[in-house]
Amino acid sequence: MTEREPTAPDGQAADHPADQSADARRKVERPGASKAAPAGADLPPPFLFLRHGETDWNVEGRCQGQLDIALNALGRAQAERAAEALATASISRIVSSPLRRARNTADAVARLRGMSVEEDPGLKEVHLGAHQGELHAGWTPDFWRGRYDPPAGERRDMFYERSVTAILRNAARGPDVLIVAHGGLWRALRTWVSLDLEVPRMPNAIPIRVTPAPGAWRVEPLLPLPEVLQGGEIFGDVDGGAP
Question: What does pTM read for this prediction?
Fold first, then answer.
């Protein structure tokens, strides 16, 4: 099976022209989140991160947020491939977002290894409020800059705090906890801490081993990253424009 190019995280879009005027958007000027990595004895042990497999809404560029969208056929195959890549990895427990695109990806790993899956609601994707179900549009980069709050949704900084807290809480139960979640959570983590390999657009179902360390945390993909993620332009500061 030939894989499509990786799609953007659930709360993140590829380039789209703005479809709202500046006056029509509700913008809130806030400073960007600073990197505040735990240090020394506060560092969590090594852990693994796995974004869910592909969904049809990923392909369409539609905002999933916390809507419970299922994996498509390719996404299910990606989950099985990730499970095979993790077949001999050291994994002490598997913790997943309860949204089924993540949970079903976690189940593929658990079946192969004879393990159970725990759920943590803190690992859910960002809630995009009234925009959930819509195509990504011009408000998306403003949201990631912290300048726009989706109506009836989560503020970016609240999402960052909630999701990074959940990642660190579960990682601390390790070593070698596998966290299965969403692209927005990876974005939150890479904003909160420094990583030695920038992967701003987390591909679907590529297991990543993360080793916290003073300074930059070490990142090791356990499957090859798609070539589209190895080009120079994508490794810039995606918070400065539409991802």
Answer: 0.81
